[in-house]
Write a structure and sequence with these properties.
β4 and β5 form a beta hairpin. This protein starts with 8 loop residues before the first helix and ends with a helix. It is globular. The longest helix is centred in the middle third of the chain and has 37 residues. The chain is 51% helix and 14% strand. By secondary structure, the protein is α+β, with helices and mostly antiparallel strands. It contains 14 helices and twelve strands. The structure holds flavin-adenine dinucleotide. The site of flavin-adenine dinucleotide has 22 residues, from β1 and α13.
């Protein structure tokens, strides 16, 4: 098995002030887990085209067995019961994304979006389904986006509609881009119910549920997405996540937590691109001297070090506010923008530092794998999903000017 021997600059440059020893222990153990279980398969995961067979079920099972799915949850829900679960969860995501943004995204959707929505909804379905989610028996998807609605999730924009039917509901319409759906056991779907929206827990084996083939994407190949169509699917009232009409509120709370996770995944990718590029700048000579002796790269990477530090701090601050029971804005929006922008900026400059080797995933003459092109492809989606970064700027502007002026 290949061992990971790159210098981790986080350990040298980042001075942890916000995490407690419990969170730091989680980070250390996830680093070790990711080096053993994700790193050896990361290249294959990054370059293999989307298919149901390509879902990284081995890594999913390993994360469950390691207890990583328990970390976000309270002991009463079957979780680890950490004092600062959100702070620990974003450390998990950062360390997974260091090797594979697909794996981090699978974790984010399964645990944060789906898990948090179930936990917030509470009641009997949380008691039934959270244990399956936490021990990895079930894969759970979270579906708000549609072909015609995603940034805007207001009732009028939604095409998936639920009508009362007997003592339950009948769902119709199509969701799009639903992560993990080709392998999911359950889908939590946002539907219009009259003037409001409601979240429904749908069994993927229920009659009328159709899940399309995985979409073909620029990156994050192992994060399988697909259309999910509901053709008059009967859903029992017992499968409402939270109460009727509470859908958007619960979904937006889950997405607020999720966006801190996406910011942290950005930090993880940015840190990996940074570590790879710094190593290359030291080792690679042009015109008789190491690239690191050129002031252009010194200043460029000084700026990148600041961006990573600042993004990681914002993620930690937002997660700390969540752990304190506060509404974590504007930090969550700032964390998402900072982390995802850092990832895109770092990946672009790391490709440049590596030159031709940054553009290649495998060089025949050297029989060597190169990871930067995959980070470049994977990083971009962070700026788009779980609320495009323009939406995050809108949220920050709301905090500055108020809803009366911003809307
Ligand atoms: C790999 C992947 C995984 C995904 N996983 C899921 C999932 O599991 N569940 C789910 O429900 N959805 C998922 N999505 C959907 C994702 O969240 C949406 O693609 C995203 O929210 C953007 O929506 P859209 O693609 O419809 O773009 P649109 O809503 O059409 O927006 C397009 C662009 O318009 C700009 N924009 C939007 N609003 C504003 C504004 N107010 N001001 C200025 N500019 C604006 C932004 O630049 C945005 O990128 C996933 C998507 C991808 C690609």
């Amino acid at each position: 098995m290949r061992t990971f021997d790159l210098v981790r600059n986080r350990e040298r440059l980042y001075h942890e002030l916000l995490a407690d020893p419990e969170v730091e222990e989680v980070r250390r153990s996830v680093q070790s887990f990711a080096e053993r279980h994700i790193y050896p398969r990361a290249h294959e995961i990054a370059v293999t085209a989307e298919s149901v067979a390509a879902f990284p079920s081995g890594e999913f099972g390993a994360m469950a067995a390691e207890g990583l799915f328990r970390i976000p949850f309270a002991r009463a829900s079957g979780g680890t019961g950490l004092a600062r679960p959100a702070l620990a969860t974003i450390a998990v995501i950062e360390e997974l994304a260091y090797f594979s943004n697909s794996i981090a995204a699978i974790y984010d959707v399964h645990c944060i979006l789906s898990g948090h929505a179930l936990e917030a909804g509470g009641g009997d379905i949380a008691d039934r389904v959270l244990p399956e989610l936490i021990d990895g028996r079930a894969v759970v998807s979270f579906a708000t986006s549609e072909p015609g609605a995603s940034s805007d999730l207001s009732p009028a924009a939604l095409g998936v509609v639920a009508e009362p039917s007997g003592d339950g509901w009948r769902l119709s319409g199509t969701k799009r881009w639903i992560t993990n759906s080709p392998v999911a056991n359950w889908i939590i779907a946002l539907a219009r119910t009259g003037q409001n929206t409601t979240l429904f827990l749908v069994d993927t084996r229920a009659p009328g549920v159709r899940i399309g083939a995985p979409d073909k994407k620029m990156g994050n190949h192992a994060q399988l997405t697909a259309d999910v169509t509901f053709d008059d699917v009967e859903v029992a009232s017992a499968n409402l996540v939270g109460s009727e009409g509470a859908g958007l509120r619960i979904a937006l709370r889950a997405l607020t937590y999720g966006r801190i996770g996406i910011g942290s995944a950005g930090v993880g990718m940015a840190q990996r691109a940074f570590d790879e590029a710094v190593g290359r700048l030291r080792d690679r000579a042009v015109f008789g001297k190491p690239l690191a002796t050129y002031q252009h790269w010194q200043f460029t990477f000084a700026s990148h070090a600041m961006a990573i530090d600042s993004a990681r701090n914002l993620c930690a601050k937002a997660a700390s506010r969540l752990d304190a029971g506060e509404r974590p804005e504007p930090e969550a929006a700032m964390a998402k923008i900072s982390g995802t922008s850092a990832a895109v900026d770092l990946a672009r400059d790391a490709v440049q530092v590596f030159g031709g080797y940054g553009f290649a995933s495998y060089v025949e003459g050297d029989q060597a794998f190169y990871p930067i092109e995959a980070i470049y492809r994977d990083a971009k989606i962070g700026e788009i999903y779980e609320g495009a970064n323009e939406i995050q700027r809108w949220l920050i502007a709301r905090e500055i000017f108020g809803r009366e002026l911003v809307g």
